[in-house]
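yo, PmbA protein is done. seq:
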Amino acid sequence: MNAVITQIQDDSQVRLDALAALSQRLLERCRANGASQAEVSCSEERGLNVNVRMGEVETVESTRDRGIGVTVYFGQRKGSASTADLREESLESTVVQACAIARYTEDDPASGLADAELMAREQRDFDTWHPWALEADQAIDLALVCEAAGRDADPRIGNSDGASVGSGESLSVYANSHGFIGRDRDTQHSIGCALIAGQGEAMQRDGWYSTALSADGLEPAAAIGRRAAERAVARLAPRQIPTGAYPVLFSAEIARSLVGHLLGAVSGGALYRRASFLLDSVGTALFPAWLSIEEQPFLMRGFRSSSYDAEGVATRESALVNDGVLQRYVLGSYSARKLGLQTTANAGGVHNLAVSANAGGFEEMLRGMGRGLLVTELMGQGVNNVTGDYSRGAAGFWVEDGAIAYPVDGITIAGNLRAMFAGIEAVGSDVDPRSHIRTGSILVGRMTVAGTD
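structure:
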């Protein structure tokens, strides 16, 4: 990366010690107020974000936040309260309020802490802490370099939506009355740029960004600007295509949304509310037999790596999908009890997913499709989680003879997620590393595309 990474004095362990001590004091107060079980979450966040546009600084924002959350259980009655005020009277009031709420709620057989025997016994370091001593002036310079490189890359770039640079760090402690206490620290940094090509009604907008846990993992600022320019210019003079049924290739950064729809359908909340098209689907073949999806909570520098979930339950590597067959749901302890099952250590979400590939890089995926639609942008929220029906606005490129022919927009792609999952013909090796869902581009063999009649 074209930036100096300055070393700073790291006081994160001291701050974590203070949060841990605070969590223990709060748990003692919960017990003193009669709670049979309790859990406490304490967090601190710091960040710097700058935005520039057309060579001028628009915003410089420095943030420093903290939060304390207390949840108590009186048998199977639950109450929660939160505060950002560390004064003793405020902390005491927060505990009292949580207890008062619990005393007036009804019993819920599924409520309570996760089972004590499931708590994590070991906490590992996944190399997620890389603070960046980023000063505002330095961040502004990076953003200006990024935007200038994009604006200078092509004479057809006539305007800009700006460039941004951000850096943040987060410390958190989770503790409960089982005696569990978890400590976590992570950082995340980003550079992004959005540019506008063309003039008048012919304008097209696109961009690019890089994000990483360590500043040295970011793409160079100028390269991000140039890539944003390339993407914006490539979308000029779009056409429409005739309505029909075509192969659809979801680019890697878009393909992870398909995995997101799967997660939504197999999450405990949707299942116990019976609001999912994948009810009672464990053991069912949903995907082609060559496709697997693995959860990898112990991935070094993973965006969601952790030894424990949001309830302190020990995480583990496991298959969500193996040989095309759904192996399990995605559950915390509450949803698991509602379903008569056991938590899968997914309170708070999944911890890094890897989708298996059966094809090569992006160019090979284009050649394999031959003729069809490449989707690089999706619009709208047209997904029905109950039926699996899928209909979204889209833009991208028409592909002929295995190569991009011209840009397209103003179209809608439609299908049913169950059929789309079963109809996946290939997953590329062109993994987008900017997410905890690690997948390459995904080719669905046939979808309805609504263009011009």
